[in-house]
Amino acid sequence: MAANNYLRWLTGNTDSVYWNDSASLHELDAAIANGAVGATTNPFLINNAVRNCPEDWAIPENLDKELNGDDKAEALTRLVTSAIAGILNKFSGKPGGGFCCAQVNPNKPGDEKVMLEQACRYAAIADGIVVKVPATYTGLKVYEECASRGFNVAATVSFTVPQVLAAGAAFERGRKKAEANGIEPGIGVAVLMTGRLDDYLRDVARDSGSAATEEDIRQSGLAAIKRAYGIFEERGYKCKLMPAAGRGPYHVTELAGADMIMSIAPKIAETLEDLCEPFESRINKPIPADVIKRLSDMPEFIKAYEPDGMSAEEFITYGATNRTLAQFCLTGWDKLKTMA
What we know:
Elements: H1 5-13, E1 17-21, H2 25-33, E2 38-40, H3 43-52, H4 59-62, H5 69-88, E3 99-103, H6 112-123, E4 129-134, H7 137-148, E5 152-156, H8 161-180, E6 188-193, H9 194-208, H10 214-217, H11 220-235, E7 240-244, H12 250-253, E8 261-264, H13 266-271, H14 289-295, H15 299-305, H16 319-337
Parallel strand pairs: 1-2, 1-8, 2-3, 3-4, 4-5, 5-6, 6-7
Helix pairs in contact: 3-5, 3-16, 5-16, 6-7, 7-8, 8-11, 9-11
């Protein structure tokens, strides 16, 4: 990644925080040079990192040869995230700085005991570890419990306004429990995977014959997170929204200036390199009403956009949730389990 004037402007002149969406040490170095102060990982990214650059992790020396299955996948996750957290520790005094995400087993999105036990092990890795749990009904129970223990925590596999609002409320409850018990609260993050929502609704639109155009679809994730952002501000949630899974520069530029933690993948960062000044804050620029109207002929968009579009019990059944959990299992966690 070359010098990125846009990212340097974003991180130096607005309230937006930049976390690198990658587990690659090489990509992390480049991101830090352009203003990144944190990192997000998931099983897919960790699998790519350890397979593409095994020399970075000295796996034969650092991994117990007797481990297998979920224990091996978790050990590899711990190995990678602890190294990244160590690099980022120098930013711990900055807003949103010094953090690295570690995601619990995506095969267990409804198992409270497994997720909480794993969350406790992750939280013990380093002060800067952010435990990622799925924004399912059970996952958010674990999220709240983690917050009550003072852990840094992120709700992920999340695509909708109802999910991030539920996460924001859960973090508030957990944070207040921590304070009541004399525990300093950690950071709370609510992910909204804008690009993955777009991907899902694009297929829904084609299948249902929706009037929504491709340009409309490209604004669906932005519409959801902009609406959620306004509600977070109204309610005074301490939890930070995190736009993630961007598909183009617009998933950054149209949110510029927001008090959010932006998870930006290296390939998206590269698309921002050629942007020309003047750069501007666009978080308060609304999505056009006619775009919302066309998108709203899809019930799946209504579920994602309306604050009461889904109940917490329905989160695990949302189409984008199933797609993403499957990818994290099949192309990430399950591959880590069998790594030689």
